[in-house]
Amino acid sequence: MKKKWYKGKVYVITGASGDIGSEVCRKFAPLGMRIYLLDLPGTPLDKLKEELEDLGAEYVETHEFDVTNRDQIESVIKKIGEKEQHLDILHNNAGIGTTCSITNGGTFEEYRKLMSINVDGMWLVLQAALPFIGRPAPTKKYPNRKEGQLIFTSSSAGKTGIPNMAAYSMSKYAIVGLANSIRLEFKMQNQNIQVITICPAPTKTKFWDSTREMKEWGESYQKRGILYKFVDVKEVAKTVLNASRKYKREVFVPRWWWLLGWLQLTSIKAAGNLLIRIEKSKIKIQQD
């Protein structure tokens, strides 16, 4: 998309207050977009709203939005859709992470909570937004064509399994599968709805401070050396904007992380051993 395309267009993001979500908004705001910030009830969004207005956003509005609350999803999306008529970019960004797995005592309740947010929530948001996604961009051949974008925040964990994070990995794999499927569906319908999946490596956010187990995993991961240094959120946000402007269907942050997925396909043993070494180093830290 050319830079001028974004001015006055509508950008809706879930999980807006998070480190990645808020930084992505800071990248889109100077383009003059109309931004809708959606996040959990009680989440402070006023400061971010003011910041985005100062950065050049044409308009910013906040909404309480729980992706596990179906009635709230339908109500908020309908309100925005009817007000704006079109959602030019819908960014499904909300998500959580845990160390829930089968072999480490993870419960079904933990698993369901994670999936209800990371997967079910995306499905419900898309379902509610479908009538408003994209705006008319007819051609002689396709008079009913619409143009817009869907952005999904997945993870590098959605391209390869992570020991002791099975539920999280499952949810991120599911996002990749969802994006790949609806991309083809829009193409079959001759719609110009671009579907973009973002797969960041572990990123320096509050995500890793959510539980003691997550913090220990992050510490052990970074002890592997400079190649395992947490990614900066600014790098992720920059990649999201670049993917939107150049329509990159699937991007990794940093870019070289695509090698892990390739390694998984070409040498499952080598990729698995790498991840196991990371996990074992975490266990050693706990024992020490």
Please sum up the structure shown.
By secondary structure, this protein is an alpha/beta fold.
> What is the helix/strand order?
EHEHEHEHEEHEHHEHH
Number of strands: 8
Query: What is the total domain count?
Result: 1
Task: Output the number of helix runs.
Answer: 9
Architecture blueprint of SSEs:
Blueprint: E1 10-14, H1 19-28, E2 34-39, H2 46-55, E3 59-64, H3 70-84, E4 89-92, H4 108-129, E5 135-136, E6 146-153, H5 166-188, E7 192-200, H6 212-222, H7 233-246, E8 250-253, H8 258-266, H9 268-287
Parallel strand pairs: 1-2, 1-4, 2-3, 4-6, 6-7, 7-8
Antiparallel strand pairs: 5-6
Helix pairs in contact: 1-7, 3-4, 4-5, 6-9, 8-9
What do these coordinates show?
By secondary structure, this protein is of the alpha/beta class. The chain has a single domain, classed as Rossmann fold. Helix content is 47%, strand content 15%. It is built from nine helices and eight strands. It has helices at residues 19-28, 46-55, 70-84, 108-129, 166-188, 212-222, 233-246, 258-266, 268-287; strands spanning 10-14, 34-39, 59-64, 89-92, 135-136, 146-153, 192-200, 250-253. Strands 1, 2, 3, 4, 5, 6, 7 and 8 form an eight-stranded mixed β-sheet that branches. Helix 1 links the parallel strand 1 (10-14) and strand 2 (34-39). It is globular, with a radius of gyration of 19 Å.
